[in-house]
């Protein structure tokens, strides 16, 4: 894991590279090229995980010196790919060296589709005068860029780009985040700064004086939910793939730990990792001071660690910890999100990095396997969508304020004719009316129009990326895996862990494992009563029922209570930011705080506003 930075026709120096030094505290490197009429710079900050020697340093050239790469991530099948390059004399054993030579000798799209791992990379083909940017298929590693027609800057994080071009908050995207709780790729909340989409390849042709750009997806969606077989046989296949995924991701020349919750996902990853590790693994858990038993996972995690024979470390945090860290966390994450689990992730990363350099996470199971409660209603939604017109009078009702968010989502998802729009409504944490009410009346009309244009853009992207002949019950999971997981949960996980120079791996998002899961008929994954069916069936080989059948807690923080008990402190934060109040209606912000204090649960909306608040004037 590392930090990458590069440019075409920008004066990109080590000053900007230092802004992402936290991502790679071990070493740095810079290469400059003159490609025709264009100047190209590749810059890199290294976190040494595989091949700690100089042979693993970047930027790295191919063996013939006609191509160069900067790469952030890990390719777990690189040794298999290396076997296809017997003519290459390798200097070291890093995955980077495999990749740059693999890209040099095979087509770019074919090569990227073969990479089983997590990555954001820039590959410069000096001979063909082309620069390529790519992001892994599930968007585990972020990659941002700014392109004005003939100048390009790209980076693992927004801050180097924003320092150069002084980008302002994009009002339309900010309004979208109020609904979706995150900025969907390729959008960011900053003007003219974009994200490479999960599974996307962007090519910059430098052959002529004007840079030409083309975009494509290097992974095509297969038809979903078609595979049926005897359940026990499918469980065995699932188990083999799961075990292989975890074993592959133990690849490292440094110690590896586990981010351990009280649930089945991280416990299963930990059980397999410990079985295949020569060392006793360390596990890390965050809890909360006070009476928060319903979301504090420490006792469960301790029990799991004891059963699996792990060294367990835990820490408890409180509201003062939250208050003193929230501004820094928002600035680390760089994009506004409404997901309160970024708070425990911050302290969890801080705890883990004092013991290890790499951690495995249980993230990624809920989306493809139907683990969230919201998926329980999908079988019903699919059956009654032909009643779309009866719900149209509900458009003007703001169910969020009536604490009926799930009902609002369900009813709104009935109405659209196309499944992408239905999915977007099903995922929206707030209604259009909520957005219209909370924003400043002076900017409301134009901002809402911009929001609608961006929503249409996102809808068109996912219509084009929808696998043929697939059904709602499979597609909603497919979309979530590549949107909310990528641009919310995985995004903040990357930013926070890498802020501490900690690499976080997600074995469940193994290419082969996910391909198998998505091929399965939904009945093996979830139904109206339960989720992760095949996952829990396999877990019985490693875990006792007490762990597998625990009630799902989720990775949360007690912000619902904290926000209720500290309402005045929150108002103080909002009302002293004049830039924030140019976009939002201060009376409506107070109203939200009051309604939450009186018993309604608006913690997501409040947390999202806090996140946006700290991005203003930053």
From TrEMBL:
Catalytic activity reported: L-aspartate + L-glutamine + ATP + H2O = L-asparagine + L-glutamate + AMP + diphosphate + H(+)
PROSITE patterns: GATASE_TYPE_2
Domain of life where this protein originates: Bacteria
Entry keyword ATP-binding: yes
CDD domains: Asn_synthase_B_C, AsnB
Entry's Gene Ontology molecular function annotations: asparagine synthase (glutamine-hydrolyzing) activity
Keyword hit for Zinc: no
Top-tier EC class: ligase
Keywords: ATP-binding, Glutamine amidotransferase, Ligase, Nucleotide-binding
EC number, UniProt record: 6.3.5.4
Annotated pathway: Amino-acid biosynthesis; L-asparagine biosynthesis; L-asparagine from L-aspartate (L-Gln route): step 1/1
Glutamine amidotransferase type-2 domain mapped to chain residues: 2-207
Similarity annotation: Belongs to the asparagine synthetase family.
Name the UniProt record assigns to this protein: asparagine synthase (glutamine-hydrolyzing)
Species annotation: Pricia mediterranea
């Amino acid at each position: 894991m590392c930090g990458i930075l590069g440019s075409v026709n920008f004066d990109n120096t080590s000053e900007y590279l230092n802004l992402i030094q936290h991502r790679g505290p071990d070493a740095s490197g810079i290469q400059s090229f003159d490609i025709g009429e264009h100047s190209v710079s590749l810059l890199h900050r290294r976190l040494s995980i595989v091949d700690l020697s100089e042979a693993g340093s970047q930027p790295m050239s191919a063996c013939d010196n006609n191509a160069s790469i900067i790469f952030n991530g890990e390719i777990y099948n690189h040794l298999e790919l290396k076997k296809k390059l017997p003519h290459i004399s390798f200097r070291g054993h890093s995955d980077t060296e495999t990749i740059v030579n693999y890209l040099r000798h095979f087509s770019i799209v074919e090569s990227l589709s073969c990479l089983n791992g997590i990555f954001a990379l820039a590959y410069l083909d000096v001979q063909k005068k082309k620069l390529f940017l790519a992001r892994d298929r599930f968007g585990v590693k972020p990659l941002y860029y700014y392109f004005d027609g003939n100048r390009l800057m790209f980076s693992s994080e927004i801050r180097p780009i924003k320092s150069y071009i002084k980008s302002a908050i994009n009002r339309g995207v900010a309004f979208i985040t109020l609904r979706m709780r995150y900025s969907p790729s390729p959008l960011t909340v900053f003007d003219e700064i974009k994200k490479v989409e999960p599974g996307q390849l962007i090519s910059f042709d430098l052959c002529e004086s004007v840079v030409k750009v083309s975009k494509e997806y290097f992974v095509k969606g297969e038809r979903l939910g078609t595979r049926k077989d005897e359940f026990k046989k499918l469980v065995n296949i699932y188990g083999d793939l799961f075990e292989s995924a975890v074993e592959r991701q133990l690849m490292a020349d440094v110690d590896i730990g586990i981010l351990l919750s009280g649930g089945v996902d991280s416990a299963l990853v930990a059980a397999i990792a410990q079985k295949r590790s020569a060392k006793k693994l360390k596990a890390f858990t965050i809890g909360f001071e006070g009476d928060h038993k319903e979301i504090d996972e420490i006792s469960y995690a301790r029990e799991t660690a004891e059963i699996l024979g792990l060294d367990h470390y835990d820490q408890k945090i409180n509201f003062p910890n939250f208050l003193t860290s929230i501004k820094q966390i928002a600035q680390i994450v760089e994009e506004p999100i409404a997901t309160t689990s970024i708070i425990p992730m911050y302290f969890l990363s801080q705890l883990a990095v004092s013991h290890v350099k790499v951690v495995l996470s249980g993230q990624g199971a809920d989306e493809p396997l139907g683990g969230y409660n919201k998926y329980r209603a999908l079988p019903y939604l699919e059956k009654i969508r032909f009643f779309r017109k009866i719900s149209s009078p509900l458009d003007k009702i703001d169910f969020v304020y009536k604490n009926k968010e799930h009902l609002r989502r369900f009813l709104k998802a009935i109405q659209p004719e196309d499944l992408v729009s239905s999915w977007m409504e099903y995922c929206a944490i707030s209604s259009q009316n909520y957005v219209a009410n909370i924003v400043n009346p002076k900017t409301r009309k134009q901002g809402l129009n911009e929001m609608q244009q961006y929503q249409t853009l996102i809808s068109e992207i996912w219509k084009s990326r929808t696998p043929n002949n697939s059904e709602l019950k499979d597609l909603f999971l497919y979309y979530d895996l590549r949107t909310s997981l990528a641009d919310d949960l995985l995004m903040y996980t990357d930013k926070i862990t890498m802020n501490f120079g900690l690499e976080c791996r997600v074995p469940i998002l193994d290419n082969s494992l996910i391909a198998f899961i998505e091929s399965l008929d939904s009945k093996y994954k979830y139904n109206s009563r339960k989720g992760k069916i095949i996952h829990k069936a396999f877990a019985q080989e490693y875990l006792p029922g007490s762990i597998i059948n625990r009630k799902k807690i989720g990775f949360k923080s007690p912000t619902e209570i904290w926000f209720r008990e500290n309402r005045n402190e929150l108002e103080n934060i909002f009302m002293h930011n004049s830039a924030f109040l140019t976009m939002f209606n201060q009376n409506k912000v107070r109203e939200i705080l009051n309604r939450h204090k009186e018993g309604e649960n608006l913690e997501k909306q409040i947390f999202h506003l806090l996140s946006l608040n700290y991005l203003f004037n930053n």
